[in-house]
Write a structure and sequence with these properties.
By secondary structure, the protein is an alpha+beta fold. The chain has a four-stranded mixed sheet, with helices on both faces. Helix 2 links the parallel strand 3 and strand 4. The longest helix is centred in the middle third of the chain and has 18 residues. It starts with 9 loop residues before the first helix and ends in a 7-residue tail after the last helix.
Amino acid sequence: MQRRYRLRRSADFEHLRRVGHAQQHRLMLLSVTTNDLQDNRYGFIVSKGLGKAVTRNRIRRLLREATRLLHPQLDPGHDVVIIARRPIVGQPFSVVQRTVYELFRRASLIKEG
């Protein structure tokens, strides 16, 4: 995922937490709000409660890759945060990818056509 597509400032995360609309799943939570940009920006939250650094980094990589593959199909102009939940630990990429797609579909961010 290129740097310009990443949410990095804590103020952006805080804004999303306050005004974003959430879609929930057993494995993760997706929060979305609009931004004034022509691109989407993505943030990933993987808490220490999910495991040690190796486990958290693997989960973060899986979420980033699933989002990267889906990015061209998404409507632009949104800030998105994906928060991993405990059941995601140990899940294969195919399950993570399917779940990310489902949450984006529920949030109506997938382009029609």
